[in-house]
Amino acid sequence: MKLLRPCLLLALGLTTFTLAAQVKAPGAAPARHTAAPASPRVALTPPMGWNSWNYFAGKVTDQDIRNAADAMVSSGMRDAGYIYINIDDTWEGQRDADGVLHSNSKFPDMKALADYVHSKGLKLGIYSSPGPKTCAGFEGSLGHEQQDADLYASWGIDYLKYDLCSFIPAVMYKQAPNDPAGRMKLMIAAYGKMHDALAATHRPIVYSLCSYGWDSVWEWGPEVGANLWRTTGDISPEWDRVYTILEEQKGLAPYAAPGHWNDPDMLEVGNGKMSLAENRSHFSMWAMLAAPLLAGNDLSNMKPEIKAILTNRDVIAIDQDQLGRQARYIYSSGEVEVWSRPLAGGAMAVAVLNAGDNLYTTHPFHLNLARLGLHGPQKAKDLWTGKEMELTEGMPLEIPSHDILLVRIAQPK
Ligand code: GLA
């Protein structure tokens, strides 16, 4: 079980004593959900798009979403594959007497917003919680799952991020205070319930679980119809956090497949004070991990060098490879890590990451091709310089601190 990040802890603290559980009594934890897997119509490759949380957080408005859609088109990102424009937390208003949820004053007309986003050739995503409140303390979907799914479908929503949040204190701890396994069953059932509600709308909606990796979500996510599931707590725009999350992905490769992806959280490329090398490494490794590529920066005010990272088509092609095989960690030498993933048509991607804070090129890393299952010189393309190169056994590689060598080998030998 991963640690909760501060904003979630705050939300949990706020909700613990105020929320009434609305489902079954203690000891009556439902059996493991067995919903049919998510429709293969969506997320056959990892979803690509943008999400409002990492940059706008609670301040996001309808206008910010429209601006993001406009910038997605004008920057060339849409044409590079970024399709989903996802509204995260804080759009929710109140329920009316019939229980129908309304958006708040920041989002005056959700249907009109969806129409606008669709008119740009993009899709719209939204956010809720299986609990009574979201992480930011707004209205959640507990007890209104079908009503909310129907509402999303009527607006034309294409993607739902469903964030555990207040379900933990309000249901899991209330109903199964002394039964950790029972708490997890409640969580799994809640995710299955929303999947069934979405399926009943007959609208293709990408289903994204946000349960911070709890109870090895990668093992049960497909059973509850998830297309992707968060594997960790929240990301933040600092190299240390990005690298910690990367380390937590070791061993998860077997669980990724077309339609079902591990989600190491949304991108921080262009946010905070990360160097260009760090942004490049973050983007490269998320592509190696077959992670959803959801940009989290202010697209309307993006520096050209950040746009160049986010629109590197060779790197995007690694992420979107049709085989859908997530990279495996192969070996380390000191602070340099080597990862690889097989690609369609017998090709292979290799990433060599210098994770050292103070590891300079005065001590070059020597590449071990045999450990990658390769024999003899290999023709490769460096995906950041665009140049062809040759990899040879034991060759010295000079990679600056926190930077990366990412190559595609078309015909590995
Ligand atoms: C949690 C999630 C974040 C974001 C916030 C919104 O912390 O993990 O990605 O959605 O909630 O409140």
Describe it.
The chain is an alpha/beta fold. The protein is built from 13 helices and 18 strands. The protein has helices at 6-15, 53-56, 62-74, 77-80, 110-119, 145-155, 167-175, 180-201, 217-220, 239-248, 276-288, 304-310, 313-319; strands spanning 48-51, 84-86, 92-95, 101-103, 123-128, 159-163, 206-210, 228-230, 261-263, 293-295, 328-333, 336-342, 348-354, 365-366, 378-382, 388-391, 396-397, 404-409. An eight-stranded parallel sheet has the order 9-8-7-6-5-2-1-10. The longest helix has 22 residues, at 180-201. The radius of gyration is 22 Å and the shape is globular. The structure holds alpha-D-galactopyranose.
Q: Mean pLDDT, nearest integer?
A: 92
Given helix and strand content, the structural type is alpha/beta
How many DSSP H or I helices? Answer: 13
Give the amount of beta strand, in percent.
15-25%
Which radius of gyration do the C-alpha atoms yield? 22 Å
